[in-house]
Amino acid sequence: MRTTREGRIIIGGEDEEFEDEKRRDNKLPAKTKTILAKLKRLFPGVAAEADYAWTGSFGSSTTGLPSIGAVPGMNRCYAVLGYGGNGITFSMVAAQIIRGRITGAGDPDEDLFAFK
């Protein structure tokens, strides 16, 4: 949960594994209602309604680590993918790895995050 500069509240949750996007999307109204109820329990003095609601996918790798580095088969193309809820930590790791690739200095952790 966080707020915007305009004072809006952005809150999420109610994640679950799924295989069918249509079934996932059909759950949106009920999940929105549940999230709003949780918000009201946490902050009873806040009158909140959902102006926007959306669903999305959250993916992960088999190792739980993001893919960081040179994109195979694409010269001078680098990507940082799949760091989910650990963005602050992995964005710094990614910056160091990509810098090492561009400068030619390399990075000792590069192989841990390489595209496989």
Tell me what you see in this structure.
By secondary structure, the chain is an alpha+beta fold. The protein folds into two domains: 2-42, no CATH class; 67-113, no CATH class. Helix content is 36%, strand content 10%. It has four helices and four strands, in the order ββααββαα. It has helices spanning 21-26, 28-42, 87-103, 110-113, and strands at 2-3, 9-10, 67-70, 78-81. The strands form two sheets. The protein has a two-stranded antiparallel sheet with strand order 1-2. β1 (2-3) and β2 form a beta hairpin. The longest helix is centred in the C-terminal third of the chain and has 17 residues, at 87-103. The two termini are 34 Å apart.
Characteristics of this structure?
elongated, alpha+beta, 4 helices, 2 domains, 116 residues
Please sum up the structure shown.
With 116 residues, this protein is α+β, with helices and mostly antiparallel strands. 36% of the residues lie in helices and 10% in strands.
End-to-end distance, in Å?
34 Å
Structural class: alpha+beta
Tell me, what's the shape? elongated
Tally of extended strands? Answer: 4
Q: Which helices and strands, and how do they pair?
A:
Elements: E1 2-3, E2 9-10, H1 21-26, H2 28-42, E3 67-70, E4 78-81, H3 87-103, H4 110-113
Antiparallel strand pairs: 1-2, 3-4
